Amino acid sequence: MSEIELTLFFIAILLFFLGTGVWVGLSLVGVAAIGMMMFTDRSLDHIGGAMATTIWSGNSSWSLAALPMFIWMGEILFRTKLSENLFQGLTPLTQRLPGGLLHVNIAGSAVFAAVSGSSAATVATVGKMSIPELRRREYPENMIIGTLAGAGTLGLLIPPSITLIIYGVTINESIPKLFIAGIIPGIVLALMFMGYVAIWSLANRGAVETVIRKYSAPELLRALGQLLPVVLLIAAVMGSIYNGVTTATEAAVLGVVGALVISAVQRSLTMASFRDALLGATKTSAMIALILSGSTFLSLAMGFTGLPRALAEWISGMGLTPVALIVALTVFYIVLGCFLDGISAVVLTMAVIEPLVRQAGFDMIWFGIYLMIVVEMAQITPPIGFNLFVLQGMTGHDMGFIARAALPMFGIMVLAVAVIYMFPELATWLPENMKPGP
Amino acid sequence: MTSDPAPSRHPLALLDRTLMRLYAAGGCLAAALLVCLALLFLMSIIGRAMGTYIPGLNAYAGYVLAGCSFMAFAYAFRDGAHIRVGILITRLGGRAEFLVRLWCQLAASVITCYVAWYVVRMTWESWLLEDVSEEIDATPLWIPQSVLAVGSILLALVVVHHVFRLLAGMKSDAERMGEEA
Fold it and tell me: Are B85 and A72 a contacting pair at CB < 8 A?
């Protein structure tokens, strides 16, 4: 077989494993071994030895420790009264805006995203309180669900972000820098979502109730005070990274301690909630570690095949402009995201995409932020979209309804990609001005 | 976990329950390692605040992390936490679904056994050759690697175990698509 036929055959095998439902991490291991057999003369025995050492060094890298820590922190916070606090605290701030309390969905997601690394967890935590409350106030169902699905994706963009850590580890970029780079684009995207809600509400007057709750000064203080725990936690975690006081992992451990303190103060910390949070974090971390094991081995195998370099040369030989390349990659990731979750999509493609993007001269920090937005879009596109699954479980609507409700948000995210392409400083300015870590 | 109303005393059912508990025990050990990991990093923060440097902490953190992941693999599999693409399986039904599930389970069995074999062999070789860490801690590598060896054996065991559960027509949490992650 020629090189091209061999490559196509290899991709077909990969798609077969993934498509039939073999667990993603295991598929990557199996396909990497097959690939090394096809493209090199190594024996299965030789490949197994290389696999074991790769899996060992890939899993025992301390920089990965930020992952389970941030996951654990999110699991603890999910079991506190934080979703109530967010709703009560944001109500006086947003009720006068056009679109009213729909903004709580967006602002609440943005705030919770700053202490959680996963967009599914963000949707679940914010929605737990806001879905029943907004329904009681008779907001249109498609707007409740759409804003929540869209804004929940901020969990990936606003640090800490699990997917961003994985991106950083995969391509060897500074995780603190990536985190700090996500802050401004995250806020911009949140404002764009809010702008959409405002425009929608001005265009559909009467669609939302306009009852405005009057707050006396002490009531207002008490409501805003509910935001205090989460604000302090954000300041402690992000502040210590930005000022170079701690590494990302150490900041995550501070976050775990802070989350436990909040949970204890609010009397949500019980033996049972501690155990559930810990075991939940252990399982989710194991799931991610298995995918990462597979992908480090696949990257090694891909290196042997020479595919990434060949592809990068082929693409650069086409003489695409940077805009065309970004458009092509965006379409590629959205299609891929229809079938794969964000983490799998990132680890599966980076071995091939990284040389290509470097060759095209993109800043890898900027590209990470771009990638988060694109992968986030995949979280709200059917048939596989984790935010859609979460909302399906929470609201009982079918996938089609939820996906349609989320469609405008998808459009806004396409716009956001264009915005950060035109103004890359949005992502690169803060990291260039932060203090180096310890 | 699928618990029958009245637990069967059949030896195979007993074996099934024992194995399921074994995976959970691995998960509990992994959870304990996760707590250790947090404590290690707390030590590093406090140490730096007091101006002392604790050598080798990062290397130890790496070993604990790897051990934590591997000991939890089987437990996460048992509870259906590992991600897979469910498009085909959830749309099929009856015999076709059974066959696709069987293929997935068999492919996973081959892959996990392959991984387990070579991780065990790597640990064995580290022991024979007395490999030590290249970092400042100079830990004999077979010690942390043997946790991975146990974890990868557990993973192979849980996957092969579920081939038999599938053939026996038992419902397993492992069949979920990991979609709540």
Answer: no
Task: Please state the pTM of the whole predicted model.
Answer: 0.88
Tell whether A120 lies on the interface with B, counting CB pairs under 8 A.
yes
- Contact across the interface for A22 and B108, Cβ inside 8 Å: yes
Nearest CA of chain A to the CA of B13: how many Å?
25
Q: Do A48 and B110 touch (CB under 8 A)?
A: no
> Nearest-CA distance from A438 to chain B in Å?
9
| CB-CB under 8 Å, A21 with B65 | no
Distance from chain centroid for Cα A261:
26
> pLDDT (tens digit, 0 to 9) for every residue of chain A, 438 residues total?
567 777 788 889 988 998 899 998 999 999 999 988 888 888 889 899 999 999 998 898 887 888 899 999 988 998 888 888 888 999 898 888 888 899 999 999 999 888 887 888 888 888 888 999 899 888 999 999 999 999 988 988 898 888 999 999 888 888 889 989 999 999 999 999 999 999 999 998 877 766 777 888 888 888 888 899 889 998 888 888 888 888 888 999 999 999 999 999 998 899 999 999 999 999 999 998 998 899 889 888 887 777 777 777 777 778 788 889 999 899 888 888 877 778 888 888 888 888 888 888 899 999 999 999 998 888 788 766 777 877 887 888 887 888 899 999 999 999 999 999 999 999 889 888 877 766
With an 8 Å Cβ cutoff, is A413 touching chain B?
A: no
Query: Residues with Cβ < 8 Å from B107, sequence gap 6 or more?
Result: A17, A22, A26, A30
Burial status of residue A137 (CB atoms within 10 A of its CB: 0-12, 13-18, 19 or more): middle
Q: What is the C-alpha to C-alpha distance for residues A108 and B134, in angstroms, rounded to an integer?
A: 46
Cβ contact B81:A282 at 8 Å: no
| ipTM field | 0.92
Rounded to the nearest 10°, the torsion over CA A349, A350, A354, A360 is 40
- Which among A62, A72, A253 has the least Cβ separation from residue B65? A62
Torsion sign, CA atoms A65, A70, A71, A72: positive
- Residue of B45, B70, B120 best to disrupt the A interface, most CBs of A under 10 A: B45
Q: Calculate ∠ Cα A426-A416-A361, nearest 5°.
A: 60
